[in-house]
UniProtKB/TrEMBL annotation:
It comes from Oceanobacillus locisalsi. This is EAL-associated domain-containing protein. The lineage of its organism: Bacteria, Bacillati, Bacillota, Bacilli, Bacillales. PANTHER family: CYCLIC DI-GMP PHOSPHODIESTERASE PDEF, SIGNAL TRANSDUCTION PROTEIN CONTAINING A EAL DOMAIN. Residues 1-249 form the EAL domain. It comes from the Bacteria.
Length: 404
């Protein structure tokens, strides 16, 4: 589509309203404004591409932005809608304009009754300008008049410094990377840094692109306070009922909680089973100066483990690996000796927990590099200085509901 066709016929610009649902009340809290254009064939064309295209003159993009935002705010006032409106701007364009077009629009409507606390300016981390000082200055002014700031992340790991500086009210992340055949909880770490930072700076997480049950579950597990996507609602030209999604979302949350409770129960049951078996065999197995006693221990636990090894309190492996050979016989694999596992996440935290609680710990799911499969590890304190680790295979976990 030629941008000039839009410029000469601005009246064919249509604002659509994409609902944003708040988790705590399961109600529509606001809308993201999306621009469409009704072409000569009476087909509605979405214009996201236009606002981020630097080859289109600034004046044109500013005019289209202004027209769409103006129509959306007029509707908000006419319908007495008290929720939030999210209005998008290319951050680089915003800075070149010094925010004047947007700020003048807000002040004009403020005189007509617009509550600026219900306006959210959305920008993308990929469009942030080189002149961050000027941008930060404008953002600070908008905050003083009540406008909230939302930053959409395309690169979660690369934008943390900018988030810490800008202190947005909302951080928007995309769930579309998560496919239906993947396990959502394995990908929480993708946004772990963002989630931690959002808590520290007081920003809420908004998950967009939710097109499936699994993606909604991922957003819920990841601490999302706001949700957006076709699985819940579609963009429309009118505002919808505030409780449009309430019944469905309430039921989804109930299912999520039930599953998490079942998973927690299954993990505790596994802990009891493993602890009972291991404690029993440890008490009956005479320890020898070498590692041969671990072979007898492995034989007693072979229903649920595929590897055993011992580390000391600084992460150094002080035993061989006990694993099965190709014929199914337990063997001592000496190459595991003296490996250092202190680099593993949570290693020392878990060591301290075992010392304090005097009991074993079951790890989260993770991928074992040598086997390329999902496993869990059960760690158990032999003493204040030695800890035994039992690797539990996927084949066992998949048979137990709630362990994956």
């Amino acid at each position: 589509m030629d941008p000039l066709d839009i410029l000469i016929d601005l009246e064919q610009l249509l604002p659509y309203y994409k609902p944003i649902i708040r988790a705590d009340k399961q109600l529509v809290s606001g809308y993201e404004v999306i621009a469409y254009f009704l072409d000569e064939n009476q087909k509605e064309q979405r214009l996201d591409w236009l606002f981020d295209d630097p080859s289109i003159p600034d004046e044109f993009r500013l005019e289209v932005n202004h027209y769409i935002h103006q129509k959306a705010i007029k509707k908000k006032l006419q319908d007495n809608f008290t929720g939030n409106l999210t209005l998008y701007y290319d951050a680089a364009l915003f800075v070149r304009d010094n925010g004047e077009t947007f700020i003048h629009l807000l002040h004009d409507f403020q005189e007509k009754g617009l509550d600026l606390n219900t306006i959210i300016l959305e920008i993308k981390d990929t469009c942030l300008p080189e002149n961050t000082n000027q941008f930060i200055h404008i953002i600070k002014y908008l905050k003083t008049i009540g406008v909230q700031i939302s930053i959409e992340l395309a690169n979660p790991s690369g934008s943390l410094n900018q988030l810490a500086i800008l202190h947005p009210s909302l951080i928007k992340v995309d769930t579309s990377f998560l496919k239906d055949d993947l396990l959502p909880h394995l990908y929480k770490d993708v946004y772990f840094g963002v989630s931690m930072l959002s808590r520290k700076i007081g920003a809420s997480l908004l998950f967009k692109g939710i097109r499936s049950y699994k993606q909604l579950n991922f957003a819920w597990q990841s601490g999302g306070e706001y949700y957006q996507g076709s699985y819940l609602t579609h963009p429309q030209q009118d505002f919808i009922e505030e409780d449009f999604c309430k019944n469905d979302l309430t039921e989804y949350f109930r299912e999520f909680v039930t599953y998490e409770q079942q998973k927690a129960k299954a993990q505790y049951e596994l802990l009891d089973t493993v602890y009972g078996t291991i404690d029993g065999f440890l008490s009956r197995t005479k320890r020898t100066p070498d590692d041969t006693w671990l072979l007898r221990l492995a034989e007693g636990c072979e229903n649920f483990i595929f590897r055993i090894y011992i580390c000391n309190s600084v992460g150094l492996q002080v035993s061989a690996n006990v694993e099965k050979d190709g014929e199914g016989n337990w063997m001592l694999m000496e190459e595991g000796m003296h490996k250092n596992w202190s680099w593993r996440p949570y290693f020392f935290e878990n060591i301290m927990r075992m010392n304090m609680e005097k009991k074993g710990i079951l790890s989260d799911l993770y991928t074992d590099i040598s086997r390329s499969e999902l496993i869990r590890t059960y760690a158990y304190p032999l003493s204040q200085e030695r800890y035994i680790f039992f690797d539990i295979p996927y084949s066992y976990l998949i048979e137990k509901e709630g362990l994956l």
